[in-house]
Amino acid sequence: MASPSFIRQLLHACALSTATASLMSCAPQAPDQNETAQAPVNESAVNAAVPPPRIVPATIPPLDRQQLLAAIGASSDAFASRSPVPEDVVALAGRPFQIKLPFGCNGPSDELESNWAGWSYDSRTRALKLTARVEITKALPMLAQLVQADSYDAVEGFWIRRPWTSQEVCPRNARLSSSPSAVTQPDRQTVGFVQLFGKDDPRTLRRGGRPYAATIKLDEGAHPGAQGYQLSISGRIGAFSDRQPIHCTAADAEVRPVCLVAVELTRVAFDDPESGVNLSEWAL
């Protein structure tokens, strides 16, 4: 028969064995190597899920009077020096443009039929009448030197008066400093733009001698023509048959060349420079 001390030792050993087993069961287990391996990331699938940033093309602003005159000046210089036209001038073909031609700077006129542009006002009815007509046509003598006129069915355009300034408003004190006839002589003009019409082009795009004309009834107490008016013209730079947007010519080397810009008009309007209001417009 086992002694009591032996039995106590046996029970103590069993208790230690049970406690050790219990502690081992609670200890953290080493993770399985297969469980710790992460699944490979499909980068192409992730990239496909994220759409690329939207690229918005920059809007090309229209060429203004100053930029047009600079290009014409470069073409005039190239003609006078018998050098090639700069590439940046040739690249203007297709660019949008907008220019405003001031008129009526000398006040109302009773000869609207004979001037390229003008205005009249009836104080009794408060009716303001504005007119502007094409002044460069196929009949212009120098046109044959600038374009192959025979290859076009019609040519229509305008002169850019006072090309030495970038201002698009009437000069100050215009009514005191000049006479109406001083600004209507075409032989004094050296810079203009023309639209060339082929035989297959729609005739509805041509003015054909018809002026741009509008009659507006003004508010009571209004003072018309304080700063004259503007003929606002928008479109795109075109090209002549040699793909040049600007052609220049001169009678001799001692006079300033006459230059014409080929254009395609999209809009013509009458503007009031004093108020900035559009008075009438034509979509072409």
Q: Oligomer, anyone?
A: single chain
Strand content: 25-35%
Shape: globular
Distance between the termini: 127 Å
Detail the poorly predicted runs.
19-28, 180-184
Mean pLDDT: 83
List the helices and strands and how they pair.
Elements: H1 4-26, H2 33-36, H3 43-49, H4 65-80, H5 87-90, E1 96-103, E2 117-122, E3 127-132, E4 136-137, H6 143-146, E5 154-159, H7 174-177, E6 191-197, E7 212-217, E8 229-237, E9 246-249, E10 258-272, E11 277-283
Parallel strand pairs: 6-10
Antiparallel strand pairs: 1-8, 2-3, 3-7, 4-5, 5-6, 8-10, 9-10, 10-11
Task: Please outline what is shown here.
By secondary structure, the chain is of the alpha+beta class.
Q: What do you see in this structure?
A:
This protein has 284 residues and is α+β, with helices and mostly antiparallel strands. It has a domain at 65-105 and 135-210 and 228-283. It is 22% helix and 27% strand. The protein is built from 7 helices and 11 strands. The strands form 2 sheets. Strands 1, 4, 5, 6, 8, 9, 10 and 11 form an 8-stranded mixed β-sheet that branches. The chain has a 3-stranded antiparallel β-sheet with strand order 2-3-7, with no helix packed on it. Strand 2 and strand 3 form a beta hairpin. The protein is globular. The model is unreliable at 19-28 and 180-184 (pLDDT under 50).
